[in-house]
Structure formats: structure tokens, C-alpha cells
Amino acid sequence: AEVYARGNFFSKCLEVCTKGKLFNMGFKYIQYWKNNATKDFGVARRGKEIDKIAHKFLESAARHHHKLKDSRSMMQFVKAFQSIDLMRTFLKSLDCLGELLLLEEESGNFLEAANIAKLRGEILHEADLLGKAGNVKEASKLLLFYVLCNSFWTPGSKGWPLKQFTQKQELL
């Protein structure tokens, strides 16, 4: 990998890093090439060549860490993708909605994050994210619906009074 890197053989270097599971080393080479390629090759060539090769490497590294159930390392590589759309597509393909939810929140995409929270059935989190997105009316409706549903009586009761639950006062 080092020999290929010195010779600026991007694809060969990253191919060797992938085969040897030297993902952190390959990641460092990608960062170096992105920072220094404009000096050697010009912007246009760097943009097409390095980005394409780098994305293939980053995706394989992320898949490797996903198989190992190491989401922290996986996300290091996913966050290096070229765009949020590529990140979304990748994480959805692996059904990593929790990681995608955190990514959207960190990026400030609260409406996207709210939709993911809804898919995961996290009503309170969805309401919080809707509020952060400025959609206060929708967030309030969701909170009231949550309180109402959790206030219904327990099985076998006569229906009155409504049951209490610990978060009711705080949510209202």
C-alpha cells in the first residue's frame, strides 16, 4: 500500500488496503490525496478520479465495519462520503436507521430526522425534532395524541378514571 501510495497509484493502493483490511491507512491516503492532488493533477482530474475511487473504498470500509457491528467506525467512513444523499442511500440500504437519524440530527436536517423517528416508532423524539424544525403545531398535535393514547384505561378497568403515566404532566 505504501509503495502504491508513493507512486500515486490510487486504485491499487486502496485495493491493497481493502484486501488487507487497512481501512484507516487507506482513509489517511484519501485525505492526503484530496488535499494535495490539485498541486499534482489539477482540480478536474482529482475530482473525477480520486472521488470515484475514494467512494468505492469508503463504502467497502463502511460495509466491513457494519458486518462487524461496529457502527462508530462505520460512521467514520460514511461521514466521509461526498454528499448527504450518498450517506442516506447507503445507510438505508443497510437498514441503519438509528445511525441515519443521528446523522440527520447532527446535520441539522430535523424534518428528515423526524421522518426517520416516525419510521422507528419514536413518537416523542419525532415531536421534539418537529419542534426543532419549526413545525411547532405538528409537534404539539403529536404530543397531545401521545398523552391521550397513554392515558386510556388499562385492560379490565371500567374506563374511568383515565390512567396516569409518569411523563403526562411534563409533556402537557
What would you say this structure looks like, in words?
The structure is a single chain. It is built from eleven helices and no strands. The protein is mainly α. Helix 3 runs antiparallel to helix 4, helix 8 runs antiparallel to helix 9 and helix 9 packs antiparallel against helix 10.
Identify the notable features of this structure and list them briefly.
single chain; 172 residues; mainly alpha; 11 helices; 74% helix; elongated
SSE blueprint and pairings:
Elements: H1 2-6, H2 10-19, H3 23-40, H4 43-67, H5 71-78, H6 84-93, H7 97-107, H8 110-120, H9 123-132, H10 136-151, H11 168-171
Helix pairs in contact: 2-3, 2-4, 3-4, 4-5, 7-8, 8-9, 9-10
* Overall SS class: mainly alpha
How far apart lie the N and C ends? 60 Å
- Please tally the β strands and state the result: 0
Q: If helices are DSSP runs of H or I spanning 4 or more residues, what is the number of helices?
A: 11
Residue share in helix: over 70%
Strand coverage percent: under 5%
**What summary fits the major beta sheet?**
none
Which geometry do the CA atoms define? elongated
**Average pLDDT taken over every residue:** 87
**Whole-number radius of gyration?**
23 Å
The arrangement of helices and strands along the chain is HHHHHHHHHHH
Low-confidence stretches: none
Write a compact overview of the structure shown.
The chain has 172 residues and is mainly α.
